[in-house]
Design goal:
Lambda Exonuclease, Chain A, about 200 residues, globular, about 25% strand, 7 helices, alpha/beta
């Protein structure tokens, strides 16, 4: 499946230009979020426009829960509780924190991975906590970017009402390469127009 087919299947569409500030860190490296902005999710945009205050409220709550999950595993942290589903995940999968909030750079792409964990066999995983009950295929594509940056497999861990763990299938590799190439093609076109 190519990127267009994947977008069609998931009711997404691709922008045909970069219409936003892609260099959000002002260092010449593009963030994963900036590349993913090329994929438009009309359903999310509708919800964002119609219920902006509720989305912002949910985002603030998510920031709190996410920080709590990270800090729970930090030495000398004040946090003594964690989302029960995230704790269940750590227990069932024998997960141990290796590092958190580490920034990786590769081929003019950068991103800070929330957390890297190992399991009982010392296999490393990029863990991305999600406090929602709606799975987005864009999350899988985002997690594949993390694998490209640091070589670790990834897991999406949903903890809103009950634990749900999603491992990212290998076919996202081709989608990722196509999206990366598409972004840099558009960027080259934008830069040539500005010269």
């Amino acid at each position: 499946m190519n990127l267009k087919e994947w977008c069609d299947k998931n009711w997404y569409y691709l922008k045909d230009k970069i219409d936003y500030n892609w260099d959000r860190y002002s260092d010449g490296n593009v963030s994963i979020t900036s590349i993913l902005k090329l994929i438009v999710d009309p359903t999310f945009d509708f919800v964002m426009n119609k219920y902006k205050d509720k989305v912002e409220q949910a985002a603030n709550e998510w920031t709190r829960i996410h920080k709590q999950a990270e800090d729970f595993h930090t030495k000398w942290s004040w946090v003594n509780e964690i989302n029960k589903n995230f704790m269940l995940f750590h227990t069932l999968y024998w997960i141990e924190s290796i590092w958190q909030e580490q920034t990786f750079y590769k081929e003019w792409v950068r991103w800070t991975v929330d957390a890297v964990w190992s399991n009982i066999e010392w296999k490393l995983f990029n863990i991305d906590y999600k406090n929602t009950n709606k799975h987005s295929e864009k999350y899988c594509l985002q997690l594949w970017w993390y694998k490209w940056l640091n070589g670790n497999d990834g897991m999406l861990v949903y903890g809103k009402w009950k634990l749900k763990v999603v491992e990212v299938p290998d076919y996202y590799s081709d989608l990722f390469v196509e999206l990366k190439d598409y972004f840099f093609t558009l960027l080259k076109w934008v830069n040539s127009k500005n010269e």
